[in-house]
Amino acid sequence: MGDNATTLSRRRFLQAGAALGGAYLLPGLMNAAWAAGSDGPEQETVKVGFIPLTDCASIVMASVKGFDKKHGITIVPSKEASWAAVRDKLVSGELDAAHVLYGLIYGLELGIAGKQQAMANLMTLNNNGQAITVAMELTKQGVTDAASLKKLIAASAPGTFTFAHTFPSGTHAMWLYYWLAAAGIHPFNDVRTVVVPPPQMVMNMRIGNMSGYCVGEPWNQRAINDGIGFTAATSQSIWADHPEKILGTRSAWVDQNPNTARALVASVLEASRWIDASEANRRETASVLAGRAYLNTKVGYLTPRMLGEYDNGLGKKWHDDHGMQFFRDGEVNYPWLSDGMWFLTQHRRWGLLDSDPDYLAVATRINRLDIYRQAAAAAGNVAVPASTMRASTLMDGSQWDGSNPAAYAASFAIKR
């Protein structure tokens, strides 16, 4: 949307939140009442898993800046090795909640990402900020974008080129498949796809195990710094302001600990707002994340794209107005039902689901709007929209608004 439309959208968003009443006017009193009375958190300590990616920022900063203590809990960030490990520890209860892929939580709910488990999405942690990296070696064969990649793949035997993502039902798989298909490349028939944990992407490309990958930062920037890959596409060029990581947990944990869940979301909301409040806060966040306990990398790999400053590794530089965002007046964090439904349409498109689910019912069950609304009130001045759906246009011109998900899923020429 243009600047005027964006401003209008935010104004309506804030007006909708303000209309909810006095809870927004006295956040301090609300916090005190919840922390001191029968609505206090059931758990004092909340173990939250994360993968070492830039978009775990709001979980980490909620702990580092003490927003958790304000809401009567202590967040203990737990660094995990892979999304499969996050899944297993969530299901077993070893983790209370996690920074997690949207499609992983939905996949567990439907039994396509592991043994079926009732799951919950408490909030969206970020929009945008992922990318597709292609090996620099392919530039010797004329590859600089999706169109030139299509020509090379068409001239080669099926499966010659391997592309990696991070989890079969996850966001990175869906961005990779969407980008390939938009260029006329079938992600299952024309190329080979594999699963690689985010921190292992650069190493695997360096030794020639794959020609491209889709992952979060800083692993796209790292490939450029190491001279082994270039950014062929950002995820926001596929879908501007798309949902990315979420704060996920088991449905049973929310039912057993509703006050703790509210406190957790309120803490992360406050951290999200703090990160997005200034460039200085984003720089401080990058510095914290670079530490050994979190991403264990150079701060220079994190800061540019954290600030929306992009270099594709082939000489193109730009400021991206749809770079990684954590709050945007609360618009980032609301668990829109249409966002969850979109991932289901892609699971159906690529054959992960054998038939159309009840898209709206599944999203309504998983996305805990009740907890989010309470947390928004507890955090204070976090607007909540009147609608549970939002509309978007993706890179291939397809329109998504959640109104007819089965037809949308069936509408793509390239599918499985």
Explain briefly what this protein structure is.
With 416 residues, the protein is of the alpha/beta class. It contains 19 helices and 14 strands.
The general outline is globular
Q: Which structural category fits the helices and strands?
A: alpha/beta
How far apart are the first and last residues' alpha carbons, in Å?
32 Å
Please, how many helices?
19
Fraction of helical residues: 40-55%
Widest sheet: strand ordering:
2-1-3-10-4
pLDDT < 50 runs, ≥5 residues: 1-33
Beta-strand portion reads 15-25%
Round the Cα radius of gyration to an integer and report it: 20 Å
How many strands, what sense, and barrel or not for the largest sheet?
Answer: 5 strands, mixed
Report mean pLDDT, rounded to a whole number. 93
Tell me the total number of β-strands.
Answer: 14
What does this 3D model show about the protein?
- This protein is an alpha/beta fold and 416 residues long.
- It has helices spanning 3-18, 27-36, 57-64, 67-70, 83-92, 102-109, 146-154, 171-182, 201-206, 219-225, 235-238, 251-256, 258-276, 279-289, 299-306, 337-349, 359-366, 369-379, 405-410, and strands at 45-50, 74-79, 97-101, 119-124, 130-135, 162-165, 192-195, 212-216, 229-234, 245-250, 309-311, 317-319, 392-393, 399-400.
- The strands form four sheets. The chain has a five-stranded mixed β-sheet, sandwiched between helices.
- Mean pLDDT is 93; it is low at 1-33.
- It starts with a helix and ends in a 6-residue tail after the last helix.
